[in-house]
Amino acid sequence: GSGNWGSVIAKIIATNVMNLDNFDKRVNMWVFEEIIEGRKLTEIINERHENIKYLPNIKLPSNVIAVPDIVESVKGSNLLVFVIPHQFIKKALDSLKGKIEENTLGISLIKGIEFDEKKDKPILISHMISRELKIPMSVLMGANIANEIAEEKFSETTIGNTLISTFFLNFDFFQELMTLILLINFGNQSFILLISESTVLMRCLESKCVEV
Description:
Layout (H helix, E strand, L loop, with lengths): L3 H14 L9 E4 L4 E2 L2 E2 H8 L15 E4 L2 H5 L4 E4 L6 H8 L8 E4 L4 E4 L4 E4 H9 L3 E5 L4 H5 L6 E5 L2 H5 L2 H10 L11 E4 L5 E5 L2 E4 L1
Parallel strand pairs: 1-4, 5-6, 6-9, 10-11
Antiparallel strand pairs: 2-3, 7-8, 9-10, 11-12, 12-13
């Protein structure tokens, strides 16, 4: 996604991957194409490295690449970060079915819930993504304000994961995954609390994870 929150997360990830060996340096950001000031928004982002509509006056790293085709944006990727308004998730998932790489992991930063018409009950966005794309999902939520995070002010966040054992298959990668979405300026004051259904609690300080 490339709205306010999506652009902020793209900025964080693109900055952090430059210091992580296990991640490709290119960060694709799916952009719903719009015409701004007579030009395509994707062209503006890729040339000026700024989302002038949804995150003005904040520079994006040059390795953030705006891509107007959602299928093209996920090609070759095995880590998907979902940051789009919840009302667009159904259409996005329909486009992505059958187009996802094997062994892909996902994390949702989407606020809100959806309604499962077949079962006549609410459903979590992360559960919907996992069901439709058949990938394990985590969820990131917190008392975060996108513009403050973009300015690298102190923030907190919590990641929930019902399939935490998936990540423990490669603990080094798990730590780097957490580092990927940490704000650079968190430093010694930062932490991520990971909660799973198996009641595994971990705290990540200075990119190091320890069981507590």
